[in-house]
Amino acid sequence: MARNIVDTLQPRKTIPATLLGVGLGVGAGSLIAASVSALAGYFARRVVTPEERRIGNSMIREVVTDAEGKLWLHFVKDSDTNQPGPCIFLTEFDACALRLSAPADVPGKPRLVARKIEHVYRGSLEGVRRGYLSGAIYEHPEDLGFTAEDVVVPLEGGDGPAWLVRGTTNKDVWVIGVHGRGARRNESIRALPALGSMGVTALLMSYRNDGLAPHAPDGRYGLGDTEWLDVQAGIKFALDHGAQQIILLGWSMGGAISLQTADRSELADRIDSLMLVGPVINWVDVLSHQARANKIPQSVGRFAQWLLSNKAGRWVTGQAAPVNLRRLNWVDRASELKHPTLIMHSRDDEFVPNGPSLKLAALRPDLVTLRTFTKAGHTREPNVDPQGFSNAITSFLTKRIAANEPSSQH
Q1: DSSP labels for 133-199?
Q2: Domain locations in the chain?
Q3: How far apart are CA 148 and CA 135, in angstroms?
Q4: For the AB hydrolase-1 domain, which residue ranges apply (predicted)?
Q5: pLDDT tens-digit series, residues 374-406
Q6: Tens-digit pLDDT profile for residues 338-360
Q7: What percent of the chain clears pLDDT 70, i.e. is strictly above it?
Q8: Neighbouring C-beta atoms of residue 264, cutoff 10 Å
Q9: For the chain, percent helix, then strand, then coil, each to nearest 5?
Q10: What CA–CA distance (Å, rounded) separates 214 from 211?
Q11: Is 396 helix (H, G, I), strand (E, B) or coil?
Q12: In the chain, count of helices (H) and strands (E)?
């Protein structure tokens, strides 16, 4: 069955009577209307509110030692625990962090899946029964043998911690890593092998509400509509420290942030190009997909989008200002794209479906290079196909560096 995706959202200056009836329960004050309003409000708040506690639902059933003395965790098999590729297992407040292998079958136990503990970053499994799994499998650039300097990027709200991995043969080419929603700067570490092979400098930065950089004044995500100001500060830092060519590497929501930076920053002309991994190209598509995935009726999902994108919704979401969802829709704005862009997106991404990425690439073949992957979950492209991921980056960077050599500009 074809997916019923809402491709555009038209902001309204006034609240329609039907939405007043649904959202505020005006008139009859029916239980159904109140329930719809509450559900839409909950969904909208979840989208823009950072999670301070992530307990996770991946259940450990057994801890097993194999013949070589290696420890394996046996999880209840589900879409998360059975995701292809290695991952990291984190417990509440990240007290325990373990890097795990790709999944394997448990002989005679089809409802379980096994992952070997490859590295213990911190903590222990004593008393641990559940946690959450992430594709950001490295905690520090040193885990892959890279020397990183601790630096600070001055942001609007205060100091943003960052890692600086200096380049060699192309040290004046800077790639700025922009992580996704709910992630941190370590998300970009998986790109360091490719970046290192090209001899470029990497700045893995923090931004508002990520648990390292200061909170935004309202403590809410802007879905890219506000965070781009922090990436602009990262670009200024790079320029102040010798960067001549700047490329943004955005993951998931970091892709939306990178696109906004390239569109709205006063330093946009200093950005050479973008590399985007599982990017949010159109938030309306993502929100509609997430509503369906959570079995939320379409009307409720649309009302949640309305709450996010209109001033009247601020009393529900806690936002200082509404999110401009139209401005974040790069399918509709394809003609306004100005920078060469590499998009790396899995066809099996169930969190941010790749449909808008495919559409943008089809609409702008002059600027967009598309590399599709299979079997990888959201932003797990480097976990499932590290060589393909590396090849995509190095091929793109080779062309961008060559395009900026003095001889190529005549």
Answers
A1: EES---SSGGGGT---EEEEEEETTEEEEEEEE--STEEEEEEEEE--TT--GGGGGGGHHHHHHTT
A2: 58-134, 141-282+328-405
A3: 21
A4: 174-326
A5: 999 999 999 999 999 999 999 999 999 999 887
A6: 999 999 999 999 999 999 999 99
A7: 90
A8: 13
A9: 35, 25, 40
A10: 7
A11: helix
A12: 11, 15
DSSP string covering 247-287, please?
EEEEETHHHHHHHHHHHH-TTGGGEEEEEEES--S-HHHHH
pTM: 0.91
Tokens of 189: 């570490």
Token pair of 337, please? 């794209």
Polymer length of the chain: 410
- Contact between 157 and 213 under an 8 Å Cβ cutoff? The reply is yes
Positive or negative, the CA dihedral 3, 286, 269, 343 is negative
H/E stretch holding 370:
strand 368-373
CB within 8 A of 2, min separation 6: which ones? none
Place of tokens 């001899």: 199
Does domain 141-282+328-405 match CATH 3.40.50.720? no
